[in-house]
Design brief:
The protein is an alpha+beta fold. Helices cover 18% and strands 41% of the residues.
Amino acid sequence: MKLDAKTLAVLKNYSQINPSILFKEGNVLTTISPSRTVLSKAKVPNTFDRRCAIYELTKLLGGISIAEDPEISFDESAVVIKDKNSVQKIPYAAETAIKTPPENKHIVLPSVDVSVSVTEEQIKNVVRGAGVYGLPEIAFVGDGDKVYFQALDAKVPNGNTYSIPVGETDKTFRVIFKVESILKLLPGSYKIDVSSKLMSHFSNPDIEYWIGVETSSTFG
């Protein structure tokens, strides 16, 4: 098979969440961070015909990048990358050697206490603001009137912040994430649902993420 650009984009994104991956039969890819604070699922254009574990996903992606118009096959014991000049083989790992998401588990938030939508540009701007000011966290803040998307340091109440308005609300809340968790998102716009049980769901038509919320968050 030839891997579609969208499939490759998801695999590159997943290599930033977990260095390993478990391919399963079908057209759905999943991953989970070693700390189990970020989980993701995506439907991709390619359909895989074999269940197999790859220990170093970056090596698979690197092998694909150096091949010219590569064909990818999942053989009995290895992924094979072929082009007109070369053959590369990446042996499978034991599933027990890698962190994998729960099997066949449909994740549902225990409640939805905050909902907001943000654009790709808004995410880029707030992440950029966090970088400029050296801020470790990103938050959705409701003041009973507006919702702000904000970069901050929750441990420094009067410290630097970077905020942009992203909606309206009659609630008060501050939902906090580590910047590194937001950096794991595939570029795009997202609808975000948050539970006061410190779970969140980021989604768009291409991909979903479930991300842990910081315990310093407040809800009303």
